[in-house]
Q: What sequence folds into this?
């Protein structure tokens, strides 16, 4: 018998090739093993495919090859002798004219009777190069074929799983669970999954575990504490497995962000242990990784070892980020280059591309998600210019100029390399203020299709259930999932104008942006409605409309009514009760002198965001640099100060001082103006008129907004026994008209109500805020405000939570519940201004008074995270115009522990400042 002809490898002869010279095995000369030898054999590709090989192992190897893998090389068997080195390099030649982007190296494991992916990268020598620790029984090169795409979406606490999305997706990932240091009975896993899914539906459910409730306030400390302790790491893996099994889920997804590089080995060890635990009970693991960074031609993944994570996980979501230009074709463009490298590190059938379905705001090099309609809001609403008669009508034959009243010069375009429309907003000096990348159905499909050449598993979305998606987005994802052709090229944005006459006849025009539309109206007489939509591709977005009255002159004309002037009361109202019947219409202004309506007008679309996009600020005790510095670091643009006013001009000087200080700090001003409940009770209608007059004087000073009174549903702020929404509207009505007459640019906010359900316990002294708001609406109060005031200051759970408060499930416990309740009562006819929003934490002070003991366990870290999260919830709701943090710098901690709400803590630090800054 002849000995087996092994090629013996050592520090000198450290490589051996197959007979066809297509495969080479190489050892490190410094670690060649001990008496290590290799025998390579090969089966021709056609013989393997045709089953013509005489070797037994090829039968099982052929039957085990997945149908989506097509053999592209000879099949090589590897036999060894001696002690192998720790690692060995494998070089396998890439066939001529092959598409290397879809080629993978696979190993044959005879004991398991399966082919497994081997991470490998192409070389300049035309090979795929792999480094392995366990030498396989066989090696081959396969071409990959696409499978049905997987669609994954996150379900956040405040979101609802829409039926069309439920039918579309493959995996639902409910958020709400977080890692935690074992300081509570919940140990290393806290929270509750977002509700609204069904584990027995046609999709898989894999809760996503995140080290944040909002990505702008990430908790890395808890994760580092767990990863750095082997016992806690094991406990965390066991808790996650038990949680997934008990909930009858299909597995879990880990999204632990911003980990430092020194946690790379710990994080890998944790994921390997978790994967083993989950696999033992037939559950799956998903992991979210940030985009790799290319530095001088080398890819760096920081704490996230893509190759090892790919071995452990069933799915790996690569979060591509928000920059749309990253999806441009080209070997040097981020997404293409990253995927070309990434499919060599991770089995491509595990990779999900993390894409945003929302539009994107680019400003100063930063990218943030934004709703489609909100991205267009700076275009403004319809404005009309025409020569009008004394009766404020337009005569037949008159030219009417119609345009949008946005303060920016809006320049639309389409970036053809990424099939994405955009709008550049330029200021009066021609400087670029921001660019809005509009994620239309066509743009999103283009980004998804950029993944297709690399045959990855599918796509994942964090915001598919968010408000503000463009028309057609869901359909575009469905077409991608069904492998249907793309819809085509993105068209240029345009304005589609619609003019409807009094008799219902409709005329439509299409213009470009910034182009005035000039029309001549001849007949018939009546009121004309002018509406406009921004159109482009499948997407349409309406802007606020306007109306114009056309009437031929007659000998005795009867003009339409003009705007109602500030009413002068014909009788002094009394306060018990003041319930207006058919209250007068609020005074209005129209820069074009065209009436907003008349007899039987055609419908006019409401102004979208007519008082601006979402902003936030803080309530201060002191107008000093300590407060202003913290506010600037938090990214705030508004400051609120409460002042007391009285009839005859009391408080006007205080208002002027506040305005001067705020303007000097570059901040917009909200004045919360309150009066005296006792004087109101004694003075009745006379007091109301005097108080409103003072508000008119204050408005003339130029504040940006005035909140009229404070918490009038409580007896400490309003006369006991007279607490009623209609009574408050009597004051609000006169105040609104006085303010608008003095300065039409001031935003009038109704006095925010105290969130409460205690009216049954304190009759005559308290009215529940929802009941009070209904009374205001019934009394016509919406006509006398630009924004509905709201307070939220009793939270002890995440700002996204809609359940889980240990006290009860009353709606005032939860920020989404407050927003939804107020919007429902007002019919969303006015936006919400949250003039106080805060979280109470006694940390750094001491024990809370008994009345506030409900907040005893709230930490400063939670306060910071929840405030950032609240900003996100408010902004993303599409219903909130302004959020004022309660508070910035109060220090008192007595019976009313206002200092506990302050974001500047007793030690001078401001954790919430950085959290809020990252929330911008």
A:
């Amino acid at each position: 018998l002849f000995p087996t002809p092994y090629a013996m490898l050592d520090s000198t002869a450290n490589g051996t090739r197959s007979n066809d010279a297509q495969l080479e095995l190489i050892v490190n000369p410094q670690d060649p093993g001990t008496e290590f030898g290799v025998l390579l054999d090969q089966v021709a590709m056609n013989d393997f495919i045709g089953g013509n090989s005489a070797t037994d192992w090829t039968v099982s190897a052929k039957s085990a090859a997945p149908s989506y893998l097509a053999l592209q090389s000879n099949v090589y068997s590897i036999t060894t002798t001696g002690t192998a080195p720790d690692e060995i390099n494998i070089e396998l030649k890439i066939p001529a004219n092959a598409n290397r982007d879809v080629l993978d190296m696979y190993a044959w494991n005879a004991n398991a009777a399966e082919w497994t992916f081997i991470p490998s990268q192409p070389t300049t020598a035309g090979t795929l190069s792999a480094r392995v620790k366990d030498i396989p029984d066989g090696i081959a090169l396969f071409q990959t074929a696409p499978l049905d795409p997987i669609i994954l979406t996150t379900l956040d606490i405040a979101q609802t799983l829409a039926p069309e999305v439920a039918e579309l997706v493959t995996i639902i990932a409910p958020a709400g669970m977080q890692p935690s240091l074992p300081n509570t009975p919940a140990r290393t896993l806290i929270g509750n999954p977002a509700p609204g899914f069904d584990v027995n539906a046609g999709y898989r459910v894999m809760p996503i575990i995140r080290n944040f409730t909002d990505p702008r306030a990430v908790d890395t400390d808890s994760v580092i504490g767990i990863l750095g302790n082997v016992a806690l790491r094991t406990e965390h893996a066991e808790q996650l497995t038990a949680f997934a099994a008990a909930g009858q889920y299909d597995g879990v997804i880990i999204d632990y962000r911003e980990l430092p590089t020194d946690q790379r080995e710990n994080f890998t060890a944790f994921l390997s242990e978790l994967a083993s635990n989950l696999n033992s009970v037939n559950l799956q693991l998903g992991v979210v990784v940030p985009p790799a960074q290319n530095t001088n031609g080398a890819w760096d993944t920081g704490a996230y070892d893509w190759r090892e994570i790919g071995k452990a996980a069933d799915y790996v979501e690569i979060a591509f980020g928000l920059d749309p230009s990253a999806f441009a074709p080209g070997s040097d463009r981020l997404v293409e280059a990253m995927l070309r490298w990434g499919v060599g590190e991770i089995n491509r059938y595990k990779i999900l591309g993390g894409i945003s379905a929302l539009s994107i705001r680019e400003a100063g090099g930063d990218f943030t998600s934004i709703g489609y309609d909100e991205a267009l809001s700076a275009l403004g609403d319809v404005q009309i210019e025409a020569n009008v008669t004394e009766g404020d009508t337009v005569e037949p034959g008159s030219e009417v100029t119609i345009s949008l009243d946005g303060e920016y010069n809006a320049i639309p375009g389409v970036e053809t390399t990424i099939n994405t429309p955009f709008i550049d907003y330029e200021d009066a000096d021609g400087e670029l203020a921001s660019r809005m990348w509009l994620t239309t159905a066509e743009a999103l499909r283009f980004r998804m299709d950029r993944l297709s050449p690399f045959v990855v598993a599918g796509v994942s979305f964090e915001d598919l259930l968010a408000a503000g998606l463009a028309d057609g987005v869901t359909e575009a994802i469905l077409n991608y999932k069904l492998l249907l052709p793309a819809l085509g090229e993105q068209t240029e944005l345009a304005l589609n104008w619609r003019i409807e006459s009094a008799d219902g006849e409709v005329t439509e025009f299409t213009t470009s942006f910034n182009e005035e539309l000039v029309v001549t109206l001849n007949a018939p007489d009546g009121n004309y409605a002018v509406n406009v939509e921004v159109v482009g591709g499948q997407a349409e977005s309406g802007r606020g409309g306007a109306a114009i009255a056309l009437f031929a002159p007659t000998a005795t004309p009867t003009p339409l009514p003009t705007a109602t002037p500030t009413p002068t009361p014909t009788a002094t109202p009394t306060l018990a009760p003041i319930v207006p019947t058919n209250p007068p219409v609020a005074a209005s202004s129209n820069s074009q002198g065209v009436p907003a309506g008349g007899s039987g007008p055609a419908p006019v679309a409401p102004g979208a965001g007519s008082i601006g996009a979402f902003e936030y600020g803080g309530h201060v005790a002191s107008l000093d640099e300590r407060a202003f510095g913290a506010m600037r670091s938090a990214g705030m643009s508004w400051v609120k100060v409460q002042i007391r006013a009285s009839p005859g001009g009391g408080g006007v000087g205080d208002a002027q001082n506040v305005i001067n200080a705020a303007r000097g700090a570059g901040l917009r001003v909200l004045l919360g103006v309150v009066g005296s409940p006792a004087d109101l009770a004694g003075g009745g209608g006379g007091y109301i008129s005097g108080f409103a007059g003072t508000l008119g004087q204050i408005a003339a000073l130029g504040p940006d907004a005035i909140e009229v009174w404070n918490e009038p549903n409580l007896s400490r702020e309003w006369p006991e026994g007279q607490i009623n929404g209609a009574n408050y509207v009597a004051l609000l009505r006169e105040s609104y008209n006085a303010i608008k007459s003095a300065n039409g640019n001031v935003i009038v906010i109704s006095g925010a109500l105290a969130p409460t359900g205690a009216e049954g316990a304190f009759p005559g002294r308290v009215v529940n805020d929802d009941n009070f708001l209904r009374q205001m609406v019934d009394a016509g109060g919406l006509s006398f405000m630009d924004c509905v005031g709201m307070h939220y200051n009793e939270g002890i759970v995440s700002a996204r939570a809609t359940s889980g408060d240990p006290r009860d499930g009353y709606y005032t416990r939860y920020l989404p519940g407050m927003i939804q309740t107020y919007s429902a009562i007002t019919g969303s006819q006015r936006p919400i201004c949250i003039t106080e929003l805060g979280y109470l934490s006694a940390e750094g002070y001491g024990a809370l008074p008994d009345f506030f003991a409900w907040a005893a366990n709230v930490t400063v870290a939670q306060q910071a995270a929840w405030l950032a999260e609240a900003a996100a919830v408010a902004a993303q709701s599409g219903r909130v115009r302004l959020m004022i943090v309660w508070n910035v710098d109060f220090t008192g901690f007595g019976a009313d522990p206002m200092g506990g709400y302050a974001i500047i803590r007793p030690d001078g630090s401001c954790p919430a400042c950085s959290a809020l800054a990252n929330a911008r």
In short: The domain at 150-354+477-481 is CATH 3.20.20.80 (TIM Barrel). The chain is about 25% helix and 25% strand. The chain has a mean pLDDT of 89. The first strand starts at residue 7 and ends at 9.
